[in-house]
Design brief:
- This protein is mainly alpha-helical.
- It contains 15 helices and six strands.
- The strands form two sheets. A three-stranded mixed β-sheet has the order 1-3-2, with helices on one face. A three-stranded mixed β-sheet has the order 4-6-5, covered by helices on one side.
- Strand 2 and strand 3 form a beta hairpin.
- Helix 5 packs antiparallel against helix 6 and helix 14 runs antiparallel to helix 15.
- The chain is rod-shaped.
- It starts with a helix and ends in an 8-residue tail after the last strand.
């Protein structure tokens, strides 16, 4: 029994410094709120009650206010805010570092980080060195913990500003149209340019009937005009569509032709039909489609293909 009691007392003597050190760290963490500012975001409910970011940054016991608004106690939260607005820590109570605290180990740097200075000033006035030194240990532990946490946080990268995209604007109509891309070998651009000049003059004179007629004449030459960009060319401009892939401008033969079938008339009619559709002359396009079908040809406008069914008898 005596041996057990002796061992128990020895273990207590060995453990007590560790327990005391642990208690000091825990006490320092718990004293973070009353001694230093908390990094808690201002709740919208408190903002509606008139609490701004400046006031919120000076409030030490933030969790008490948060608990009030979470409990739905708006009156209690409003009353507490009014009291806080008139408290010394909010109104800017700034006390100089007392000489007694300097003697007990307080520095100017640490003093600048203390939010609640009045209790420490009171300790200095009362000559309570023991309590002042106890609080000094807690303050130093809290400041060290905050510095370590701040060092672990990666710096926020500055957002990369996005360059503003200038809106694409068509050049003035009076400047005419510009050739887009290269022309096929042997293509005579002079008639096209003359018709385009006439069309510009007609549009400036607001003679849209003549302008539409000239557009049809230009399209019949195998030319595609883009009024948005004021350009022209023999290649159909690409259009943004939600479908997969771009729609080909010409029709492609699908499969083999029957022996002796002459494809030249069909291809000529197809080219005329494409030009009519580009010019939005849908009446002519429909008539050309009937002429093509009359030759025993099947058209698939969805994929732009044509073929001659085996059942066709007219070649």
């Amino acid at each position: 029994m005596l041996v057990a009691a002796f061992l128990s007392c020895g273990a207590a003597l060995l453990v007590s410094p560790i327990v005391q050190q642990h208690s000091t760290c825990v006490g320092a963490r718990r004293s973070l709120s009353p001694l230093l500012s908390d990094s808690v975001t201002l709740p919208p409910a408190l903002a509606k009650l008139g609490c701004d970011e400046e006031l919120w940054s000076k409030i030490r016991a933030k969790k008490a206010l948060i608990s009030l608004v979470e409990a739905g106690d708006e009156a209690g939260a409003r009353e507490r805010l009014e009291r806080l607005r008139n408290s010394p820590s909010i109104t800017g109570y700034e006390a100089e570092l007392p000489a007694e605290l300097i003697t007990w180990g307080y520095t100017a740097e640490l003093w600048s980080k203390v939010k609640s200075k009045k209790p420490l000033v009171d300790l200095a006035a009362a000559g309570d060195e023991a309590e002042a030194r106890t609080r000094l240990v807690k303050l130093e532990a809290v400041i060290a913990a905050e510095a370590e946490t701040a060092a672990k946080k990666p710096p926020k990268a500055a957002p990369t500003p996005k360059a503003a995209r200038a809106p694409k604007k068509a050049k003035p109509l009076s400047e005419g149209y510009t050739l887009r891309g290269a022309l096929p070998d042997g293509f005579d651009a002079a008639p096209v340019e003359a018709l385009l000049a006439q069309r510009v003059a007609a549009k400036l004179a607001k003679d849209y009937t003549l302008a539409d007629q000239l557009q049809t004449d230009i399209a019949s030459l195998g030319v595609f005009v883009n009024d948005r960009t004021r350009t022209w060319g023999t290649e159909e401009p690409k259009k943004r569509t939600a479908s997969k892939g771009a729609m080909p401008k010409e029709y492609t033969l699908k499969g083999d032709l029957p022996a002796g079938f002459d494809a030249a008339p069909v291809e000529a009619l197809l080219a005329q039909r494409v030009a009519a559709k580009v010019a939005r002359d849908y009446a002519l396009a429909d008539q050309l489609q009937k002429d093509i079908v009359a030759l025993g040809v099947y058209l698939d406008d969805k994929v732009r293909t044509w073929n001659v069914p085996k059942s066709a008898t007219r070649y």
